[in-house]
């Protein structure tokens, strides 16, 4: 994808997320998402951070994480997200609407990171609530390429060594070994460490994959 197409896919994904959470009852906002320890409310708040974050905000978040004995990227992001999650639902929805077309990036990230963030967190809410809202396959493939190519933070190639991943709805295959087949959405969730993806995968390697990954993977995305 050209960068302008990536930005268009980000806007589409963000708009889909807004439509998803705006249609939920307030009680659903309090339900757990696929992200460990985060409610739907927290995931929604998290997606307002990237379009507005600054180096100063991230540095402050890391300093606070250090003071709490959680000096890591995950610790910093968890603190920033939980703080953002104290805002009321209406304020978060307004911020999400305002962020749809934003091209602002968090320091040190790229448009493809923003695409991963938007697509995967939409699934973190939809799957947790039993809502079928698959990602557009081409956009999900672009996000999967980013996750596969870069070790941090998911270590996808290391975790999935020995498996050949094949998308059923778009041309994409990576890895070598026993075949695991699924939609591009399911494979993206697998790449980003969501065990919920395992129920939507087929192929000779799917059962072995479930045995090897389920006890170790955690459902979270910084």
TrEMBL record:
Domain Mycothiol-dependent maleylpyruvate isomerase metal-binding: 12-101
GO function term, MF aspect, one: isomerase activity
Record-linked InterPro entries: DinB/YfiT-like, Maleyloyr_isom, MDMPI_metal-binding
Keywords: Isomerase
Protein name: Maleylpyruvate isomerase family mycothiol-dependent enzyme
Organism encoding this protein: Cellulosimicrobium protaetiae
């Amino acid at each position: 994808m050209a960068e302008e197409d990536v930005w268009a896919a980000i806007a589409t994904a963000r708009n889909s997320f807004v439509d998803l959470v705006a249609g939920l009852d307030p009680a659903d906002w309090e339900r757990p998402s696929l992200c460990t320890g985060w409610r739907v409310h927290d995931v929604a708040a998290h997606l307002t951070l990237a379009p507005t974050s600054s180096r100063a905000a991230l540095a402050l978040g890391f300093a606070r994480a250090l003071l709490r004995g959680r000096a890591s990227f995950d610790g910093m992001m968890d603190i920033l997200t939980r703080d953002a999650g104290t805002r009321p639902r209406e304020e978060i929805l307004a911020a999400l609407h305002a962020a749809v077309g934003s091209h602002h990036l968090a320091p040190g990230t790229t448009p493809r990171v923003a695409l991963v963030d938007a697509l995967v967190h939409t699934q973190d809410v939809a799957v947790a609530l039993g809502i079928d809202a698959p990602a557009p396959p081409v956009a999900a493939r672009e996000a999967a390429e980013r996750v596969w190519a870069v070790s941090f933070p998911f270590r996808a190639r290391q975790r999935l060594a020995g498996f050949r991943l094949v998308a059923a709805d778009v041309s994409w295959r990576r890895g070598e070994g026993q075949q695991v087949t699924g939609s591009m959405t399911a494979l993206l969730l697998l790449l980003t460490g969501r065990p919920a993806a395992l129920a939507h995968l087929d192929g000779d390697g799917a059962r072995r994959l479930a045995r090897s990954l389920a006890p170790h993977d955690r459902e979270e995305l910084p």
